[in-house]
Design goal:
- Helix 1 packs antiparallel against helix 3.
- It is flat, with a radius of gyration of 19 Å.
- The relative contact order is 0.09.
- It has two domains: 77 residues, no CATH class; 43 residues.
- The protein has six helices and no strands.
- It is mainly α.
- Keywords: Membrane, Signal, Transmembrane, Transmembrane helix.
């Protein structure tokens, strides 16, 4: 029963992810904040070639952060995937020198992206 609930939760999360991802793409229209009187259908039809400006920058930020946040939420659902991630981290730490620049950058990104503070943002 627990495995079925985990799969159901994963399916619902992926479904919601697809909706949020498509909404973020539509939000990138350069006249998004000036088109309150226009239905979203008009904005979608006019989307090709009109992504840019401040809404476009927010769209890019959302499209980058959304998969990261969903991955951070999905990985702990299944114990085996969590163990793979922990094993990857241990192997990374073991194979890289601790004073190397790539190690410090990867360590900083790991702790930033998979911290609980980042999930609350």
């Amino acid at each position: 029963m627990a495995k079925l609930l985990k799969i159901w939760r994963l399916a619902c999360m992926l479904f919601l992810f697809c909706f949020l991802f498509s909404a973020c793409a539509v939000q990138g229209h350069q006249y998004w904040w000036d088109s309150f009187n226009c239905p979203t259908e008009c904005v979608i039809k006019d989307l090709h070639g009109n992504i840019g400006g401040e809404p476009g920058r927010w769209m890019i930020a959302n499209l980058i952060l959304l998969p990261i946040a969903y991955a951070a939420a999905i990985i702990p659902i299944f114990q085996s995937s969590l163990q793979l991630w922990i094993g990857f981290r241990k192997q990374l730490v073991r194979n890289m020198r601790k004073d190397s620049v790539p190690f410090r950058i990867l360590r900083m990104l790991y702790f930033l992206l998979f911290s609980h503070a980042f999930e609350m943002i």
